[in-house]
Amino acid sequence: MVEGYSPLRLLLIGSPGAGKGTQSGRIQNNFEVSTISSGDLLRRNIAQGTDIGKRAAKEMKNGAFVSDEVMVKLIDSELAKLGAEQGWLLDGFPRTMTQAQTLDHTLESLNQPLNLVIHLNVPEEVILQRIMDRWVHIPSGRVYNMTYNPPKHAGLDDVTGEPLERRPDDNPETFKIRLQKHHELTEPLLDYYKNRNILVSLSGNTSDEIYPQIRELLQTRFKPEDASEVAGQGLA
User: Fold this and answer.
1) DSSP secondary-structure letter at 202?
2) Is 167 a catalytic residue?
């Protein structure tokens, strides 16, 4: 942590397919934060065939969100591993008011209050097209898009060479159900964090449009990026 700056404790909120994973990776690369991705935790548990993973897979197959009980167990265990001076980013959790209130209780006990919520505002038609073009390396969670981020070799993961797959819920019918449920759950969350004065909404069609807004916000409020990293990264 840089003197004069508070540790970043950030929540990203956005529709499925809005680019939370992409933005999380960029933030993690350029700021001193640990990323806790609910999606990655779920996929890891599903791939490992844990009891929680089996429960989550059954719920997701039916187009439903994973239950609060499962999500709270996963996230609480990850947060407990971090120290009070460590910045962190939550991707995909909380998704309900029950989860948000439970998270606040956990963070209060850890003396790590949430201090920023970023809402990724991406048009629904853009998200639907993005999902139709999405392929995933299930064990690692690496995501490819056939339009703007294709694998080096069609159908294969760049790192391992293993086959890519579509997520079971990446089809128009199931995904529209997920989007509808997401909007119903997210509106109260946005109001909740807006009333706490920690919500910022950023809009764009692509991650490259939104990330410069995120970077400027975090530089101003929390910790400047390393100058050499910024020069090396460039912006789209």
Assistant:
1) E
2) yes
The question of whether 55 is a catalytic residue gets the answer no
Q: How confident is the model at residue 3 (pLDDT cuts 50, 70, 90)?
A: very low
Report in angstroms the alpha-carbon separations of 175 from 16, 28, 205: 8, 28, 18
* Residue range 41-52, pLDDT digits in tens: 888 888 888 888
Cα dihedral 86/90/93/98 (nearest 10): 40
* Residue at token pair 């806790």: 36
Round to whole Å and give the CA distance between 114 and 11: 8
Amino acid at 179: L
Query: Helices in 31-171 by DSSP H: which ranges?
Result: 38-48, 51-61, 68-79, 97-110, 124-132
Q: What is the pTM of this model?
A: 0.73
Sign of CA dihedral 105, 38, 210, 175: negative
Residues of the binding site:
17-22, 38, 43, 92-95, 99, 134, 143-144, 167, 178, 207
Q: Which residue type does 89 have? A: L
